[in-house]
Every structure is written in C-alpha cells, then in structure tokens.
Amino acid sequence: MTQRDKKSATRRPRQNHLDLARSILDLARDRGFGPGAHMPEQLIAMQCNVSRTPVRAALKLLADQGLVVHEAEIGYRLSADFTPTSAFSEPLPDAEEGALAQRIIRDRSARRLDESITVGEVMRRYDAERRTVLKALGTLAEDGLVTRAPGQSWVFASLPDSPESQADSFEYRLLLEPAALTAPGFRLDEDRSAALRRAMVAFLAEPDDRLDPRAFQRLDTDFHLLIARGASNRFVAEALLAHHRLRELPGATVRGNVVRLRQAMQEHLGILDHLESGQLAVAADLLRVHLRLSRSQRPQAANRGAPPLFGLNGRAGR
Description:
Elements: H1 3-10, H2 15-30, H3 41-48, H4 52-64, E1 68-71, E2 75-78, H5 96-109, E3 116-118, H6 119-126, H7 130-142, E4 146-148, E5 153-156, H8 163-182, H9 190-205, H10 213-230, H11 234-247, H12 258-276, H13 280-296
Antiparallel strand pairs: 1-2, 3-5, 4-5
C-alpha cells in the first residue's frame, strides 16, 4: 500500500458524504427498494440534488458498511440481506467532530461527565483541537442535547434515564403528542408513513428469536418523529423533536420483552391506519392508550375489560 493509499484509508469521511449516505438509505426505504435493487448514481444525484461525485463517495461508505455492493458493469446494488429494518441497525461512521460528539454524549449518559463542561475540559479529556470541540458541541446543541452557558461552559439537557425521569418523559409526551395530532393544521408525511408501515410489517414478520431491539427502537423513534414533524405549531414540533433525540441516547429507553415489542408495533400500525384515513381524533386517543401501555409495561393491560386493541389476539402484544 502506498503512502497515499494509507492516508486515504485512515482519513475520516467528510460530513456531507455521511449525510448523503443517510439520505440514500432514506431514499431506498421510501421507494420500497428490496435486496439487490439497482441504485443508479444519476437517480440518486437527481433525488438528492447533488452531483454524482459525492454520490459515489456516499455509496462507497455504504459499501464499506455492507449495505450495498458494487458490480463493475452495473454499478451499485442493495446488498442481498438488505431489509427495511436491518438497513438501519448499524450506524454509519462519523466525521471527526461527529465521533467526538458521540463520545461526549456517551460519557454523559454513563455519568462520567458532570452536568456542565467547558471547552478546555473537553479538549484535555479527549485530546482534541479547539475547533473540533466547538463543532462537536455545536452539533449537540443543534440536537438540543447541550446549551451554551456564560463564558466557555456548556450545560447538558436532562436525560430520561431513571424511572422517575422516564415517567416524566411519558407524561410530557402524553401532553404534547396527542395535542399535535388534534391541533388544526397537522400534516402527515404520506411517503414517510408508507415507508414506515413497510418497515414495521417487515419487523413483525421476523420470528421471535430474530427480533432486534435496536431495530424496534429505530422504528419506534421514527414513528414518534413522524408525529412531531407533522405538528403545525413549530414550537410543539421543535420540543418533541428535541425530546426524542434525548430518548435515543444510551440508557434512556427501557427495553421491552418480545411480547411488548410486537404489541407496541401493532399499536403503531393501528395509529397509522387512522392517521392515513384522516381520523386524527381517533389516532390521538389510540396514541394516548399506546403511551400509557408503554409506560406501565404490563402486557395484559390492553385486554382488561375491553376488546383487543388493533386486532390483537391473546398471543400478540404486551
């Protein structure tokens, strides 16, 4: 390997290539592409409004992750084991500041960092340049995970990682999410909804021993983000989006058993049914039930004194 090749192998990918790689996965999911589907560079470039050069770089990143394969005469195809759920189970590599941001938030989730930090502390702890630290903290700030305090200090947002804070999180969502559905002007992204439905159905088709809690977490987050993005009030939308970013952090979400995972996914699909048919008030009522069941973590709660929800029978749902 030449010196130039070694440099290329160790060079971190550019952030715009990482973002484009994620957009390509979203495009494949939204279009319902299956294993082996051709991923033409020109189509991707047109859909993502970029030139073919960054598309090639993004596709190479996906190939490195095993999500696409390259064939000399054909170009790129989705890998043979690509599915709507498995496609998003492994994170793509982050650029330098993105990797640092992830390290910071992981250490905060593990309580290895205090509630507030300074730029100097981060530089010393992670042996990072000031410019990289500022970009990493800026990324976290955009996601609502930190806020800038006077001077060089940054303060972390509260994490829903204890029973008390998780209870508060459910109460918060019970107040805002159903209201987002029933407030005038809610708009459902039909393309995202259809793609999400396909992914949820694929998830439920998996046998119990192959259900991936990480895939469930991703789909659950996408479902609730779908509601947040549809809110007509931008303050409600921004509040929910920021809160769901907190829920994605390590340790912030309690894992359910297989029964609850299946029931919760069925509840998502039932709510989607009513959202897509424009029955927003019914969808809001079902969303309240869904959040309360998830909060209680009691599999039998859905069938106590009431007909099974969303077509569930005694074997499905928790």
